[in-house]
Design brief:
6 helices; single chain; mainly alpha; about 170 residues
Length: about 170
Amino acid sequence: MVAYLILHTFLSNQVKLKNLDLAMSTQVIEMEAKDKTLPARFQAYERLLLLLERTTPYQLVARYNGGNEMTSPEYQLLLISSVRTELEHNVTQQLYVSDETWTVIRTALEELLIAINNVARALPSEATGRDLANAILHYYGQEGVITPNYVGIRQIKQEAAQFMGTRTSAFS
């Protein structure tokens, strides 16, 4: 009976040690994988921040010279195409961010497109691209109107901070 108890205790301890060793090995592998994906993940955060910054209404209007010598519908199409092209160039970055963050980014850009369409629809038929540019800037300049891009930017910063185990303010 004593031999059985000693052998049983010894074997139980051996199983526990093997399980502990396996758990430690798994953690090491996970840490190594995290270290290898970290640069790609942060490059994705950078690219998505750039996407959101480049597609703010202010940047769009500045980049396309305020719609000079265009009709309002031509300028509207140019702005919408620009936002969609920017998104298409960055669609693969969703591999490196959470589904929640990707949804916030997509929603922000869709809200921007909806706002551009609504502002354009409210203009008279003879409006110029310059009129549309001014109306868009006026719309986003109103008190209480938040540019949807900044919601996405805040989400990316929060996720990056959580991933690094730091506070959001470190990235603000």
